[in-house]
Fold these 4 entries.
Entry 1:
Amino acid sequence: MRGGTSALTPNDFGVEPLSTWIGRVVGVESAPLPNALAAWECRNDRLAWLGLNADSFIDAVHAARERHGAARIAVVVGTSTSSIGATEDAYRALDADGRFPADNRNPLVHTPHSLGMFVREALALEGPCVTIATACSSSAKVFAAAERMLRLGIVDAALVGGVDSLCGSVLFGFNALQLVSPEPCRPFDAERSGISIGEAAGFALLERDDCGDGSSPRLLGYGESSDAHHMSTPHPEGLGAERALDDALARAGIDAAAVDHINLHGTASAKNDEVEAKLIARRFPASAHASSTKGITGHTLGAAGVVEAVATLLAIEHGFRPGTVNTRVLDPVCGPQLRTAGTAGAVRVALSNSFGFGGNNCVLVFGDADATQRR
């Protein structure tokens, strides 16, 4: 993000790769699951395992399990396709009786809840286990669901996250909707031509304020809405997105003027970017720094919410506001908040937007360690 470079590469995924660019995680093919977890073997769970092992995250979860007990930690994960790639492989290799091949006849994998069950098993957790599948807002809404569990005393900690891996269903499905760009995506560009699909795994551990050391960033609020305007097109006036924004700011106890940075949904599709740009232009002061990180990662679909929440938390931690990579000339509908270049500067309060198909909207508000006292 500091270098303003894109990780997108020409698509080489699948038997007959679609002519596009993708955000592919290196090393998934060469990283089988440990023998103890071999029953969960598939690309999506491999990707999840890589994510769980990043940044000493597993150690943090084990420490929380010691503090609270395995039954008091929830697993709340988001995904849009789960392990459907394994199911695609099975359909391509049906036996003479039309059944899945014997080596791919595994109910642990061929279910939308595979990711949640895998994470719970891999980390020996025993609390509630929930999978949220609301398209591209899935792993943003996990923060909201986990906060409610914590506030109601159902659990003492929550592992939240999201994983979506590359598969034919999303690549060719989005292409059928004429949403896939033949070049690296250019969010909010005047000549943007569609999305670049990526894959990702991301996780976070949520606990109440009194459980931490006081130095970690805070989830200050969240807002959710469902405008149900259209199956794949946002409301032309952004009514659902704005309702989620209002809800998030109200829960956080702040107004728009307090926001330093906004990680935009910014997919580089024509209508999504137009609607979101107009919303930002009319609601935030010119001093706010707004950008999309999808030019770096691609659109990671069900994992986008948590990946961009992490990008937002990094902005707070490092005092750096990312730019909008690949974008050349901003669409005239963009206000002064939209930035193509990254800049150094304190980030005390930041938003992360996630807007999914069907009008599933979620806005998260994060703040630095002192944010609660300031508000």
Entry 2:
Amino acid sequence: MKTLKFAQSFEVVADLPEHMQSLQRLATNFRWSWDHATQQLFHEVDPQLWEQVEHNPIQLIRRLSADRAARLAKDKLFLSRLKLAEDSLQSYLDAPTWYDETYPGERDNTRIAYFCAEFGLNECLPIYSGGLGLLAGDHLKAASDLGIPLVGIGLLYSRGYFRQSLTDDGWQQERYVESNFYGLPLQLLRGEDDQPIVVTVEFPDRIVKVQVWLAVVGRINLYLLDSNLIENAPQDQTITDTLYGGDEHMRIRQEMVLGIGGLKALQKLGLTPTVCHMNEGHAAFLSIERLRQFMSEQNVDLKIARQVTVAGNVFTTHTPVPAGFDVFPPSLLKQYLTPSVEEIGMDMTDFLTMGRVDPENQQEPFNMAILAMQSANYVNGVSRLHADVSREMFQSRWPNYPVEEVPIEAVTNGVHTMSWIGGRMCELLDRNLGLGWRDNPADPAVWREASEVPDADLWELREDQRSDLIRFCRKRLMRTATRRNAGRAALIQAGNVLDPRALTIGFARRFATYKRASLMFTDPERLKAILLNAERPVQIVFAGKSHPRDDGGKKLIQDIQHFIQREGVSHRMVFIEDYDIEVGRAMVQGVDVWLNNPRRPMEASGTSGMKVVPNGGLNCSILDGWWAEGYKPGLGWAIGDENVHPDAGHQDWLDSQSLYHLIEQEIAPTFYNCNELGIPLGWLKMMRASMRELAPRFSTARMVREYTTRFYMPAHHRFHDLQQNNMERARVALDWRKRVRAEWPKVSIGPVSHTHSGTTRVGEEFEVSVPVNLGTLSPSDVRVQLVLGTVGSNRELTSYVPEDMTHVSQEGTVHRYTFTVGCSRPGHRGYIVRVIPHHEDVHVASELPLVTWQTLAD
């Protein structure tokens, strides 16, 4: 049957009583998604309806009966709470911000554009699949709290990511639910003619149009692009249909709409950015459009435009393995991108080199992460370990630099505390700290005070939150049983699973094989003994989705279901279907221990474990991602150690034995070792330490401040400075790069001399001197550095620090440099001399990866 499409549309809006008009305003700003008082207000409007509409306040208002609306309009207590919520929102929007205090006078000429393929703001807007989207949503919320002049750009997927259900045999089934955008907290943007604002993206043989929707997130605007327009061909109407769906043709179309269409939309809205942040490589095509716009607006050529725009781009990679990056065959790039690339005056062959690890390998697929790196002066991974892994992956792009100096930095992820902290914990902190803690939950002083909450109150909170989770699980399992037309016995069983007083472990994530959801099932009998221990029972709550095309991940879910059914442990182990923000929020607030056991080092960061921390939960994890830098004894537990066995199967066995041992010998005994009042003092001590030390460190408030101070503002200032005086600085920098690159082969380092005898006492000094032939270059063009560190095996330097040497004399083209080495501590140390380019407007080594090293024979 042919699907009927509308030709024109209009909106019918129900009138609310005058006193309740402000409900609509509250509903259209996603600040409600992290304000517990506003959420509670929506719940009070109609508790049953609030659940039915999956926490969508727009649908709540539209489906509210006239009778209920009239009663609420006369309820003075409700109206008082409504007024408080409205005043709270306005106070939040009007309050002074960290950004304005830190960068006074900079707001009007600064605009950061944050591009991401998915955003997880709330379960009612299902345009996210997992960690990347939740991180992006938390990033916007923290940017709002801090007052950063930032806008978000994404795609508005009509069917989003799939909804999950399991068959009776435990096999994942996917279903896609069509979203009604007009029934979401969104606004279709229109021009002065009242027509939707539309931008175009050029494809090989046609023009695709996209319209723009607005989601307001506190102080931040998120612009979402939608290709479902009747003017588009049917195959193009579905570009923004499904998140991460379709073949490589669909993926490249989506990424062109996101990167090229997104930047065009900002230009049309009068929001041309000074800084573009590509959160993963999906948006890397924005680099082409940014060049086109800049060349057109400034009337400059490609080289000048690239010198300026690259200075204003930031790229964050979230992928720790090469297979995780988006790659396309060169033929597909030529098919789709040739018109756009040729418009900026670039040869397609040259463009293809920008997406290869080896620029000369014409058979290598085009890698979107490499394009993003080549288009940004600021590149980072999402944890310290992930940055290390990324530098190793991409070192071949900088073959003459040691892996430690590949220009990929680390900004460890965080979570938006107010979005994930439970209402009970908020009430406890309010009673003990007052309301001020809410303004800056990343302040270490907040959590030092929180750790002083009385034992009885803290343990009562923990018990209540666990009970909340168990009620949630029972309700979801009963819903699942009803959907399957299960009998009365099955419904009764679902309503009695889990024990509100038992140690509860949570495991929820994407069911990719490297995350090893089956690790705890290595020894089924030992696991059963842990679960069914009469004195120290343990229960486990699972949730998570497998990618629709990942049968290996689906098999893991099925194996868990089979174990639950076969081994008679359904009262101690459950799998909650359809993992989303609502399920995740319930779990991180209610579990005692969050379990994470990926294969190291394949977890780039992982943020789910961070979310349990402010809720009083503890982590038990492999030393990977954020836990590799967050863990220390007394804060949680580490599975195994930092060593990785070359045999993956053997490593899995080692880690499973470590996990069993931790639960049996440390976690369960600590949890159940209670005093005469039934309070486990040792457990509370760990809870306090975890909250005090980890909650402020692993928050998006800290993370977004880092991005702003280390990347956004330096990128903004450099982008601005390079444009001054008709691009004079950009032109000078470009000429300098060309001259240095041509003259660099003439740079050489002569014999190094020193004044030490081989053995030097602590507190003594010695001088190192070296002649350097710079050819036609001058000392201002370079930095001559003494790379000083600790000597390891096979002559390698570790823990080294480059120190700039001092220019002391010149004879012709030969310049002498010296450096005084202080011997402040004992040990075997070494050094080597190198020369690198230096210019204040050129980002070495990302823009000019040249270096000359002292020959080891010296």
Entry 3:
Amino acid sequence: MNAGRIRTDLLADVIARVRAAGPRIPAATYRLQMGKQFTFRDVLAIVPYLNDLGITDVYLSPILKARPDSTHGYDVCDHSQLNPALGTEEEFAALARELQRHAMGLILDVVPNHMAVNHPSNGWWMDVLENGPASIYASYFDINWLPVHPHLRNKLVLPILEDQYGKVLESGRFEMSYEDGAFFLGYREHRLPIAPESYSAVLGHRLENLAGLLGPDHDQIQELQSILTSLGHLPGYTEELTAERIAERNREKEIAKRRIAALLAASPEIAEAVAETLHELNGTVDDPATFDQLDALLNEQPYRLAYWRVAGEEITYRRFFDINDMAAIRVELPNVFSESHEVVLRLLAEGKATGVRVDHPDGLWDPKAYLEQLQRSYILARARAELAAVEPEREVTDEELIQALTPWLAALKQGGRSTPWPLHVLVEKILSEGEALPEDWATHGTTGYDFLNLVNGLFVDGANRRAIDRVYSQFTGTATSFRDLTNSTKKMIMLVSLSSEINMLSNMLDRITESNRWYRDFTLNSLTFAIREIIACLPVYRTYLAGPEFGPSRRDEANVEAAVSEAKRRNPRTAHSIFDFIRDTLLLRNIADFPEADRSSLVGFAMKFQQVTGPIMAKGVEDTAFYVYNRLTSLNEVGGNPAQFGTSLREFHRHNGERVRHWPHAMLATSTHDTKRSEDVRARINVLSEIPDDWRAALRRWSRLNARRKDRVDGAAAPDANDEYLLYQTLLGAWPEGAAPAAVSPEFVERIADYMLKATKEAKVHTSWVNPNDCYDNAVREFVVRILAEPSDSVFLEDFQAFARRVAEIGRWNALAQQTLKLTAPGVPDVYQGTELWDLSLVDPDNRRPVDFERRRLLLGDLKRPVKRAKAGLIDLCDELIENVEDGRIKLLLTNRALEFRREHQNLFARGSYVPLEAQGEQRHHVAAFARVSETETVLVVVPRLVAGLMGQQGRAPLGLAVWTTSVLALPKGQEGGIYRNVFTDERLDVAPGNEASGLPLATIFGHLPVAILERVAP
């Protein structure tokens, strides 16, 4: 009795401690890309530098075991261990201790939607290949074991062949082998297990000869016959198996393997017979009949080897987008969740990690339920760890813990924003224009693509939209509607690379309607067509129907209604009834029309539909349309809408205000591992929106100068005008700081050539990854080399360099302004690796190049020397850095000073209000400003925007009276007077009460640096 009460008291105390700890909210994060070239030991070495920079939390790419050749970590193949390529458990523990020593946190990147497959290191997948539906892991993957085509029933289609199956088979590229009691099929880098029940084709092939050689009563012959009998009695993978029969199969096949290994080790005769049989099975090239036995054996396997091109139509497992080597897992199942999160939860419970970034939540069956499960599991793991620390010998069951935690869990689920979840979780959710993150998700916000596009738009001159439209259409000879383009590219993806997913949906719906007299006249073809049309018109990545007990939200209803309405408009000759039927099905409005037995299938269709739409949007828009619609490529960013030309100050302030109210701890990003261009590249390209006439003239000159450098492919110039237009923007954005025409490095030429190869293949206009056009690919590469690396004619390069220098001069101020806004806006700023200096990276893998942290450490140390932190020294230092702006130290200083200030005033930035500010005077439209205000603190943030016209042709920095004349910044109400300290320069700006201007002169604010953070130090 006493023990029970002590246990209850102990549990209550532990829960109180976990509850009181709350989530660790970073002040600022730093994203690091892990890999063979950058390990746990490398991260440990730079922790002091990141701390000096002002970072509070390190944010790592995935650290669980990935494919051995992984370059990014998202191809996880084993959730049960850390990635050995990154280091050992001990090395990770040492990193965790170093972070704790600096009071820093660690955010883990979790990949719950998919795993890397078709590699031996994925034990789950290898077991499925061996046992098919009878595998204990068959339910872990999202596999359709009962597709429409009968020949694919209980088969996993493996699209790994480089050619048609028959050609590959008869070319002798398959090779059977034996190892430790098991048989395998080798093909290139693949090593596929053979189903145990088909071992008989190998072991029994020479049984009669062996019996004649050794005698039918020989112990080894009898053992072989016994093994063959046991294999014949294995529960088959095509049966409808109970859990008990699956366990029996799993047990007995392993016993059989051990017996086979022992027999072959003991009997040279049988081992030789098996080797001869394997050699015979492998066939003889130029003799097709010798492959018949292997063909028959492979037809008995739970997998069907297929040409990689069939994946789009016949693949039977859900993939990550259209990547055949990434298979979706069913993390909605409790056992799959538990096994795939065991290491992550342990690291969180031990305090070695403090937060989580969830990759691709839109691929999950039910993102909301997943996030709640993640939070609940963290609470359980943390409570168990706390309990073990105080009473290591005491055992407490999960049931006891859950019972004790139930009141808190219920409060969390019902509390909404007012009751914060205890684990800091961010979701890589891409919000479409006007879309809001569901407020009932157990997360602290997105990873920041919404902010990225919002802040980027501030530096695009919306007044010049029509002018840029004309420049683009005149140069390319086309006038493209982005909305129509995306509708077309999404349909292309559904017809080519993701047609199997559409076929799966339409067949699901066809089976449901076939037994319903109201809907059975909707044919399979008409359903397939209508589903494609609705998805092509869906304005968001996905909807979030959670089941009939909850129903769709108003937001989801509006999005589905909008998609159906547009699909009807685009297809006036198609009967509206089929669109209405699919709409009502997706929204479960017609569920009462179906018998009880069919309703779960109806819900299943709606849920599956939601998992399919995200990949189609990503592949059709981000990975296709964004490489076709090149009007102003700085707008072609993940989560962006290139049709929206710029962000108004009012819109910028409105979104920031909403973030304060709803998601104050969401991440703020400007560069990530997934962005199409780095923040500094976009900042440069944005300049073109301010100088459309100069841009048009430059394009005409360059096109004329470079026309002779093009080749002709299929009767047309290559690259075409659209790709050439993209190339010039790319060069302007990525042109090395200070590079003269003669100094263009071979490395830079190669980077641009590689980028154009990727861009043109992603565009899928003249070439693609699936159907490469080598002639066009080579022509584009040669064009890049000719215009950049041919020394015989430097006219283009000299002209280009002059224009690029001007764009870079203006773009730098855009970049500094953007960085300042990110580091001070509501939310948690994230610095992508290396971007504290100028970073002119393009899309991956370019943005994953190694970062020179030693150089950054030395530069930061020099900037922070005591003499330079003195008041006068900081002003002089800023003047010096402006004079040498190309070296990037100005961005490093700004980043460091802002991050340190934010770390010292965490309460202000985490909980302070957001007050939009306005400038007054002639230059008022060239300023973005706001105040962060708490009960005791006020900080003003002021940056310039759209400064090309202010700088003039001489490229002067936007500083001082000559630029800002008499314009002033209006101060927050009630704080018109006072003294403000410039965080960057330590200058003190005094505004006397009663001043008629009621503000601070912009010429003073931007006297030495064209961005400012002003701390009110005295009333």
Entry 4:
Amino acid sequence: MREWIARIMDWLRRDRLDRELREELHFHSRQLERDALSAGASPDEAPYAARRQLGNATLVMEAARERWSVPSLEHFLQDVRYALRGLRRSPGFAITAIVALAFGIGANAAMFGIVDRLMFRQYPYLKDPSAVHRIYLRLSERGTTRTQADGIPYTRYADIRDGTSSFSHHAAFLSPTLAVGIGDDARERRVGVVSAAFWDFFSARPALGRFFSAAEDMTPRGADVAVLGYGFWQSEYGGRADVLGEVVQVNNVYATIIGVAPEGFVGIDDDDPPALFMPITTYRGAVDAASADPARWYTKYSNGWVSIMVRRKPGVSIEQANADVTRALRASYQKEMELNPGATSTAKSNPTAVISAMKTGAGPDPSLEARTALWVMGVSAIVLLIACANVANLFLTRALKHERETALRLALGVTRGRLMMQTLTESLLLSFIGSVAGLLVAYWGGAGLRQLLVAGDAPIEVFTDWRTIGVAIGAALLAAVLTGLAPSFMIAHGDLANTLKTGGRGGSSRRSRAHSVLLVLQGALSVVLLIGAVLFVRSFDNVKAMRIGYDAEPVLFVNRNMRGLRLDSASSVALRTALVEKARAIPRVEAASWIYSVPFRSTSATRLFVAGIDSVSRLGRFTYQASSSGYFEVMGTRIKRGRAYTDADRAGAPRVMVVSESMARALWPQADPLGQCVKVHADTMPCTTVIGIAEDMIQNDLQSSTRFHYYMPVDQFDPAGGNGLFLKMRGDPRPHQEMVRKALQSVMPGQTFVSVMPLSDVVDAARRSWQLGATMFVAFGVLALIVAAIGLHGVIAYNVTQRMHELGVRAALGAQLKDIVRLVVGEGMAFAFAGVVLGGLIAFLASPWVQPLLFQQSAKDPVVYGVVGVMMLLVALAASASPAARAARVDPNTALRAE
């Protein structure tokens, strides 16, 4: 069909040109006839005179066609048609090349789309994004520097806003998950909590109504207003224009809807667009109504909860802005010390501030996930290089097969440049088809990849994302150049006379060098990926095998959301007791315990006082868990010495606690921890006696060496405190989430509700970076190994075909079967060994950059290098087996008859 369309278009174009040429020639002929008549020729002689002067009309038309046409375009179209015919004649070659390029280009497109969204892509509607920054604080704590991008006190934000002159706009923001809706329609949703100045950073205009103003964002209590997100407006309100003035409940706040954000506006949460936006000074009313002093969130330095964004003034450099914001930050700490003399001094914390990217992944201290994602993106580029090397080998093999044909075409007058353009056009066509297939690979595989890297429900955009499409096109162009280099070089430097004399059997040394370079390159890159895969797999195994102090797999986390409902202490205790008793009565629940904090999600700490220690806080951060009895049974945390607290350790009974092994060693290195006295909150508090020592647990950071943690009965610590339960389930807890939610929801009063999730989901998020590295390195490593094995097999098989005559002569001269097999297999093993050595060297040199991404695993582990080397050699042996078997069947009589 394509060929018929091309023919029709060519015919229409040529017909138009011929018609115009004939009209032009007719006009000139009439002019020449008129000139002949004027010169005295008769009417019968004038036409003949005009034709003699005009010349051969056919030659004139051909010359005009050449001048009017675009030779380069004509040649390109001819090359495309030639390439299509060649691919149609060699479907195996075409499919192999397209599949290899599709995986290479698709891997790069998918990874770019994810990393771009995670780290680099600007937020929609953001004005002058190069001048908009997030403020990062750097603080020194016990000899280490900690970078803080969120959890900054609002008072610190106000001090920076009022104490700097380098910025035209300042805004505070955060994106908590709050209960939105009423009754059974209530769901926990992302909410954009922003100051009124936030809107000035964007060029967005409301799709409906208006945004809230500075007058509605005043401390200590802002107006109860909300701006709906466009998607939430469409899904929950059907896009109704009369939604303005309606009320939406956000936790305990009944906010009046005053506007709707425009389509595509996500604020600074493009991975999980907010359901709505509300003033930051209204937020605490939504979550802290029960507090006796909600204004403390805007007046004290002890509560950190916001992030800060700024816009640089024109002409202000980043260095000037950093110096300005650091001065304001130090002044803020000085102000805090005046209000609270016990606060950490600037001499100890050495606070500094820097402005950097809005997305923390591209900030001054990117997370482990962001760094791993960048490495995986580099791995995808290696996969593309391996695919290009494989396809280049295919092109080179086919070019060598048609070497005599190429020499004949050159002898007949076709230029080398013309043949080189044909080769590049064919590689470009293959790469273009491969890029389309690669975008399909990115679309289908990107969803699973995205789950390893980012959270939220934003869809995967491939065919509508021009940045990703641009990367795919760029990768295709790069692949076209790389795959066309080898055959083009052969054409440019081929020995025409020698090829014609030898019948295409010459140039074996040149063939060997070209194939060898490509094969060794494929092997080396495959070895690098395989070493990375084994390192990350072992690292992830170390993470999974590490005892974290509890068993998260059978545990459900139940979060109680009171939506601002304020209960007195007795009512809070009654509700907590009712929830625990109801949970213990649910089928398949083995144990239940009320809890105060959740590992890797929310941790709590308070001041401790121990006799003989001047400052316990200097030893590190001591976190606590207040829970009801049965906590250690629920979590599977082992008590090493002493006992756990029970129902008998209630309010009014002697105060008790259980401490971790690390905490016991740190506080009482030379004494028995059991029976020791610890005062909690203040040194005037009564003693809390250590009754047990539990195994160490991990609260926040898998790589942290400190495991200072202690446990107390909630009745003795804060009877009305805590906000959830841990339930130990019999078997997999996931199928029973909804059953548990419905059972506990029946106990909840009014508009309050509970949400249920597996605790393993929280813990697995902390393991995500190592899981990502293991998964992607293994996937890409296996893909690279398969591509390299196929390429090695193809080249050796081709070499055997080319050398059948030589092998026959060897057999006729007395070479034994094992000698011929050893010759073929040895060639493949030599390629593999060279690839192992080069790849091992590259991996060894890259180990200092890989080491920070691993967990309790050396990047220079000789066992890993040895295992990968053996694996590569075995693959080479398998790839050489079939060509070796074919070589072993060579007939020496055929070779002698040919001679």
